[in-house]
Amino acid sequence: MWAALAGGVGGAKLARGLAAITPEVIDELRVIVNTGDDFRLHGLYISPDIDTVVYTLAGIANPETGWGIAGDTANTLEQLRRLGADAWFWLGDRDLATHILRTEWLSNGGKLSEFTEHIARALGIPAAVQVLPMTDAPVATEILTPGGWLAFQDYFVRRRHADEVRDVRFAGADDAAPLPQALATLRQADVVVFCPSNPIVSIGPILALRGVRQAIEHRGASDGSRCCRVAVSPIIGGQALKGPADVMLRGLGHEVSALGVAQLYAGLIDIFVLDETDAALAPQVAALGIRPVVANTIMCAPQDSRALALAIAQAISK
Ligand code: GDP
Fold first, then answer.
1. Angstrom distance (rounded) from CA 265 to CA 78
2. What is the 3-state secondary structure (H, E, C) of 160-187?
3. Which ligand 1 atom minimizes the distance to the CA of 234?
4. How far is the CA of 236 from the centre of ligand 1 (A)?
5. Residue 8 Cβ contacting ligand 1 at under 6 Å
6. pLDDT tens, 103-162?
7. Above 90 in pLDDT, residue 223?
8. What is the CATH number of domain 2-37+131-139+172-317?
9. What ligand 1 atom has the least distance to the C-alpha of 246?
10. For residue 271, how far is its CA from the centre of ligand 1 (angstroms)?
11. Does the beta carbon of 7 lie inside 6 Å of ligand 1?
12. Fewer beta carbons below 10 Å: N end or C end of the chain?
């Protein structure tokens, strides 16, 4: 069984590749997804990273944005604006069905993890592929900007991640138990993959949950379990392909390069997959005690994701 840690678009694209080689190469895949971006809007509970992963795995994600549903319309959003709502977050009509049902599910006492399982099956994701929210408890990522602390979506969407980032915190993470199934997955997995997601605000919240970092640390070569832990760089040529990962790394004093990401994950990974563009960084990654693997990591189409997943499987078998 393979575990994958993922945020939104970058994570979902690799998860799609891993799912494409399940069950042929990977018997079972469990994707553990960040929920620190979750928030409420217009009375609805929205879970952007889970939806991106689920829609991508179900093959219905909008290929242009990577998030939302392909071909979705925005009639409800338009009408909300007409009625005077401050509708700053794009919500498609079909996408809204997910948020409405999830909000109902949660208000009836159901769990986010149960709803996620429900919607994954309803959208046709095969049973060998599971999507697990990192926790059922509330965790809220917050960003310190020169103007003060902002809720994540205020920073990311409303203010278009234009502010300088001085600090990041995950409110509630100290008290939030990781999903028991997610923790068990990390303790049992043959392979743990860190998808190319934002290391600070997508992978960071997962690692901040009690016991998660330790569970992955203990899966090192020394535990005799032969678990292999692999990360794929979300930084290529010193830049993020999308989003503020590069700006955040800089703001928090990390090196803005694939090497900077490898340094952040040192102690947690055995293999680091660098993009071909960054092949020259391989010796410096090796100097961290991490085996560098160079591959094409840019996933434009599903076949790119599949090829990268196969490259990871091949690297592990060596
Ligand atoms: P978000 O929550 O939608 O911002 O998504 P993530 O946190 O999962 O991903 C953001 C990161 O994914 C950025 O650092 C991007 O550079 C990276 N990313 C997006 N697409 C790709 C890709 O095709 N390949 C790689 N290597 N990284 C990608």
1. 43
2. CCCCCCCEEEEECCCCCCCCHHHHHHHH
3. 27
4. 10
5. yes
6. 999 999 999 999 999 999 999 999 999 999 999 999 999 999 999 999 999 999 999 999
7. no
8. 3.40.50.10680
9. 14
10. 19
11. yes
12. C
Place of tokens 């330790």: 214
pLDDT score of 229: 97
The whole-number average pLDDT for the span 93-107 is 98
What spacing in Å lies between the alpha carbon of 79 and ligand 1's midpoint?
A: 32
The single-letter code of the amino acid at 42 is H
Please report, for the chain, the start and end positions of each structural domain, with discontinuous segments joined by +. 2-37+131-139+172-317
Could you tell which of 242, 265, 305 is best to mutate to test the pocket of ligand 1, judged by most ligand atoms within 8 Å of the CB? 242
Length of the chain measured in residues:
318
pTM of the model: 0.97
Judge whether 52 and 67 are in contact, CB under 8 Å.
yes
pLDDT digits over 46-93, tens only?
999 999 999 999 999 999 999 999 999 999 999 999 999 998 999 999
